Amino acid sequence: MSTPAKLPRWAELFLLPAINLLVALLLAGVVIKVMGESPWAALKLMTGGAFGSQESIGYTLYYATNFIFTGLAVAVAYHAGLFNIGAEGQAYIGGLGVGLVCLWLGAWPFWLVLPLAILAGALFGAGWAFIPAWLQARRGSHIVITTIMFNFIAAAVMTWLLVNVLIKPGQQSPESREFAPNAFMPALHELLAKVGITFTSTPLNLAFVLALAAAVLVWLLVWRTRWGYAMRVAGLNPAAAVYAGIHPPRVTIWAMLLSGALAGSLGLNELMGSQHRILLDFPGGAGFVGIAVALMGRNHPLGIFLAAVLFGALTQGGSQLSFDMPRVNRDMVVVIQGLVILSCGALENIFRRPLAALLARFAGRKDEV
């Protein structure tokens, strides 16, 4: 088995993902051309729909907030040598924790509701990740299999709760009653208005700032603490970790708890910030998109932020595209997202070796000069 070609860090973090993204967009353009539409016009519509106005930017960043939380969740587990496929279920159950706090304590002042909601979302998400973590660490059950299974279990549990327990009395739609106003996450346009900045009303809310804070904290934890160093060592070489006095099973459990807590924070954006009630399937696949975001962002918080904005733009711009180009429907937008995931994830190493050879050739010529 050949080892991947070595690239300079700047090329690994920026140039290679850019090339993979360009290839994905070219493939998407070919598909759109086959459908009888102009790829260039489609690209302009998607770009304008994602960044062409304050409203578009607000929606793009609103979607990106979910992807930041789930991308960070996947990245933390990845650094510990774990592939957490269960961010969707962890976000679902974490959102349940957020929703319960908002339903039961919504009459309390917001400055009390917010920290309790953050804590509940993190604890519920971490709790849902604990069993797969324990099974991996103590019984050798593969984390991929158990986390996938727990996604389905989470969906079944939430369906039962919303149909039989949390449903608003007198209605048929499986959703809870609306939260009290004190449990609403402040919209970002309202916060900006207080400092004299005018911004169009969108679902973008304070959770975006919390997601950025989470990214900074993950960076500090993983790269600036002893625990983060132990986690990365255990992920790269468990045998060397044991030799260094690190206990890999313990690292597995704690990394998955943190991963689940990050995924569970999605409910702050979706439930407190936008829907203001508990709904069925409110994660909307963000847990799975987080896998692509983490891979494309090289499991680094800065890269995850940029990749989350990209997928937020694809989500928001895709809505505009499907509206103005009826042939390119929502399913086609999913295909475009899939091409980005395929190119930047499964096929990313196709261009690694040629790029490494090209950079080495340029470096050799520079040395000769």
Jot down its keywords.
single chain, 369 residues, mainly alpha, 2 domains, 16 helices, 0% strand, globular
Characterize this entry briefly:
The protein has 369 residues and is mainly α.
Count of distinct structural domains: 2
Number of E-state strands:
0
H-E order? HHHHHHHHHHHHHHHH
Cα-to-Cα separation, first versus last residue: 36 Å
Largest beta sheet, briefly?
A: none
- Rg from C-alpha positions? 22 Å
Describe the 3D structure.
With 369 residues, this protein is mainly alpha-helical. Helix content is 74%, strand content 0%. It has 2 domains: 103 residues, no CATH class; 239 residues, no CATH class. It has 16 helices and no strands. It starts with 8 loop residues before the first helix and ends with a helix.
Please write out the topology.
Elements: H1 9-34, H2 39-51, H3 54-79, H4 87-105, H5 110-139, H6 143-164, H7 188-193, H8 207-224, H9 226-236, H10 238-243, H11 248-264, H12 266-275, H13 286-296, H14 301-324, H15 330-346, H16 352-368
Helix pairs in contact: 1-2, 1-15, 2-3, 2-14, 3-8, 3-11, 3-13, 3-14, 4-5, 4-6, 4-11, 4-12, 4-13, 5-6, 5-11, 8-9, 8-14, 9-11, 13-14, 13-15, 14-15
